[in-house]
Amino acid sequence: MPLSYTSKTENSQAENINIQLSGVEDSYRFAVSVDCVIFGYSEKQSLQVLLLACNMAPYDGLWGLLGDLLHPDENLDEAPLRILRERAGLTDVYYEQVQTFGRVDRHPIGRVVSTAFYSLVQISSIPLSSSSKNRVRWFNIDELHQLAFDHQEIIETCLARLRRRLRESPLGFNLLPQKFSLPQLQTLYEVALDITVDKRNFRRKIKSLEILEELDEYQSDVGHRPGRLYRFRQDRYEKLRRRGLKFEL
User: Fold this and answer.
1) For residues 9 and 232, what is the distance between their CA atoms, to the nearest angstrom?
2) What is the pLDDT of residues 123-150, one digit of tens each?
3) Domain made up of 169-242: CATH architecture
């Protein structure tokens, strides 16, 4: 029967690992949290973000993101669903993971590493629950003042990601009716991207992508000349995407 052999180097490595593990409980203890950046779109307003009144010192009286510590029995991508439901009564909200924030002094209770998720929703489609209206509010992006924790940095990071995604993918079509006019589409991108686009150039570029289906229908109940209605064609966009083309505006 062959003899097993362990080198001094292997023993040394094992001892080092054991020493490190023995110190995890004290020296490496930290919490993991999730912060939800919910951007809201409305044709009549600028881009907004949903904030929660903070009741933790030293940030009492300030506003911050909807967030919470990750539960021991909870997967990271499951936490936003719970947080949005518990904090604002929101359900069935699309969200996307963005980045992890781990500055040593970012939280007053100790070392807390937070992963941020963002979403873009139509404000009118997700009414806040009556129990949350006094502590959860929509704020215009360009009117934010001092926020709790490092939430200003998190919002700015997620906003940059959102605007990049809007320029590269048809994410914005989720915020429009199934049938929409070109002015509605243009307004969506001007509000979300905080830009002004030339009407003629915008229409020429969007039509050149051939991802819209022109309908023989027009807007109704509007105080101006009714615009022709269109429908987004996901199948046509997918063909473009597979060929390496991007939805660039």
Assistant:
1) 63
2) 887 777 666 666 889 999 988 989 999 9
3) Orthogonal Bundle (1.10)
Alpha-carbon radius of gyration of the chain: 24
Contacting residues for 153 by C-beta, under 8 A, at least 6 apart: 101
Contact assessment for residue 155 and residue 49, using Cβ atoms and an 8 Å cutoff: yes
Domain range list for the chain: 28-167, 169-242
Both structure tokens of 119: 């979403």
**In 23-78, alpha helices (H):** 24-27
Give, in order, the Cα–Cα distances in Å from 15 to each of 11, 19, 171.
6, 6, 52
Q: Which of 80, 73, 81, 69 is nearest to 30 (CA)?
A: 69
Is CATH 3.30.450.40 what the domain over 28-167 is classified as, yes or no? Answer: no
* pLDDT one-digit tens code per residue, 143-194: 898 999 999 999 999 999 999 988 888 778 888 888 999 999 999 989 988 8
